[in-house]
Amino acid sequence: MFIPCLLFLVTAFAGCSDVQTQKGKVQADKKIGLLLVNHGSHSKTWRQALLDLESSVKDSILRMGKIEGIKTAFMEYNEPSIATRLKEFDAENYSDIIIVPIFLTVSPHSFDDIPTIIGQKEDPQSKEMLKFEKIERYTPKARTHLAPLLDFTDILQKNVLRRAKALSRNPENEGLALIAYGDETYTKEWSALMDTLGNHVSNHVGIKDYSYGWCGHIVRYKLDSTTVAVENVLKRKEKAIVIPILVAHDENFQIRIIGGGIAKVKNHKQRVIYKPDAILPDANVESWVIKISDKIAGKINAKNSSN
Amino acid sequence: MNKKQLLKWNTIIHRDFGYFLSGLIIMYSISGIALNHIDDWNPDFIITKEKIELKRSYTKSEITEDLVKAFSQMVNEDEYKIYDFPTEDQLKIYYNKSTLHLNLNEATGLYEKLSRRHVFYETNLLHRNSIKGWKWASDVLGAMLIIICLTGLFILQGSRGLSGRGKWLLLAGFLPPLIAFAVHYAS
Lengths: 307, 187
Prior knowledge:
By secondary structure, chain A is α/β, with parallel strands linked by helices.
């Protein structure tokens, strides 16, 4: 009787010690989940790229031990929605949910809509629009922790540089046309991001000229902004390299809007170099998701320890 | 059922479905016109905008609750819900039905108040299928509309019916979309 009891005590103590002392291990009363939130799209290809991102980071994050579950949610158009996923986390008794928005830079979606959906904010415009778009709001029992956006680090610069390099043949004669979704409220910030990306490529590849245009709601999804951006580059350079600054590939954007905008450029077949690709897949984005979620999970655990 | 009876039922279905759907057809038509011009106006909401100017520039570190209250009073808002910083030089204050978005560096602000554009808002809710379950109701109504159209073709007989001038008008109705398609594919 004594030996089994001793063994039980030793095992129980060892287990307890494991929880309390080993860095990176799950804390007893904490259950942290990770929710990767993206915009959502009618395009299956687009959605698959975001699901692939989850698959790529899942094992690494779970191996680190702080986060116990990972899910992806689509803000608009598709299920699983953010509300659906938050309900699932609640049903699985998670205490904390880290939300990593796969969004490029500040916009009403990232700044108002997502916080309003998860109950962190009550933006009157967002509330109305969400109701109109049939996007459910849900305040989870678990605490939510929002991560910064992709422009928080230099991953976008590295991404655009890699894609520009892959297409460039003669940097001196080429200019860059960056086409992004854009935003009416935060045009200054979106323009600043485009300048950062353009300058980064200029400094590292020698494609000195760049221009940018929008393809989203700000231009009512019209092709002209792409055409103008490409023509601006071609006024000064022999060839234009067009890079879509979009999270994933959506036929409506990369093919219809950007491709259509390029097709309106005179001699585009000879003068425009375009690959309808996207930011994803990108190993740096995957590393960023792993790092930022681990960092926030660490903070949640540290806060819990200090309490 | 002989031809006479068939025509009688055709007229009954056309008439009664027509009565039943009149209200909805008008609603959808109004909403359709409103949504056609979505680039020129907001058919769902009236957003009242008011620009304000601050006395001076501020930095994020200077912002206190008292200052947020003072900014709120400039737009006649007594109580704010929360405030947040979209960027290092911007402040957004949230009220019950409005927001104040300040550019601290430029010392400017935009106060926005949202209200529903009634009648349009409600009809657009239907047109956009923004009400849960309406999709199925609207499928049934769509099918009824097709029946109204088809039965309408056989209401009159003779020279004013489908075998007379009706066939020409029916064909003429296809012209606007055909021209539109031709223009689209030619450009």
